[in-house]
């Protein structure tokens, strides 16, 4: 008990005294996950919105596939990205393996299906609600996508936060493609796994506390945005 209390006190000290190593790891984690979510938004939102409004053969198959990719095992994603970026892979010439860029790519593969699936659900509901108005104005299905995305902006921010929560907590894929290299690709989750195995619980606890704090903050923002969306829906009703 005394040992745990000592480690916990050291963890608190690391956080509040601004330990340079700890905050460098936190900063890299945030940079990788934020970039991954932004790229996922650029890909996933248009794809999700297009699937919501378009009607073509095989649409249901694509939706089922997209929903299935939401639960794709992270270690498998890491393996596939590793094979793609390795020297013998199709993108090996870029020499991206064991870099933050490789970690961003792995997180984009994981987060994009989440953003796309949630976007499709939101936009599809709005498209059904506004279908008569859009038809009366002569707006085509694809032309309605920007309008629907703007109207769903609050719900879409919630989708991005959900994607960020998945990215920031990821360990399996990023450790495979990043290699957990000190001062290069070591992020919060991989550092927690490494330091725990080494018995350095103070740093692991400090990073764990920060990661929990980020998770709580993200969930609080999701709840606040969901409540705001409900209030706006009631006002428009």
Automatic annotation (TrEMBL):
Task: Pinpoint the ABC transmembrane type-1 domain residues.
Answer: 26-222
> Which is a Pfam family this sequence falls into?
BPD_transp_1
Q: Where is coiled-coil annotated?
A: none
Q: Which InterPro entries match?
A: ABC_perm_TupB-like, MetI-like, MetI-like_sf
SUPFAM superfamilies from the xrefs? MetI-like
Q: Which organism is it from?
A: Ruegeria meonggei
Which family does the record assign?
Answer: Belongs to the binding-protein-dependent transport system permease family.
Topology of this chain in the membrane = Multi-pass membrane protein
Q: Which NCBIfam families match?
A: ABC_perm1
Task: Identify the domain of life.
Answer: Bacteria
User: Does the entry feature the keyword Transmembrane helix, yes or no?
Assistant: yes
One CC-aspect GO term: plasma membrane
Question: What name is this protein filed under?
Answer: Sulfate transport system permease protein CysW
Give UniProt keywords alphabetically.
Membrane, Transmembrane, Transmembrane helix, Transport
Q: Name one GO biological process term.
A: transmembrane transport
Q: Where in the cell is it found?
A: Cell membrane
Q: Which residues cross the membrane?
A: 22-54, 61-85, 97-118, 154-181, 201-227
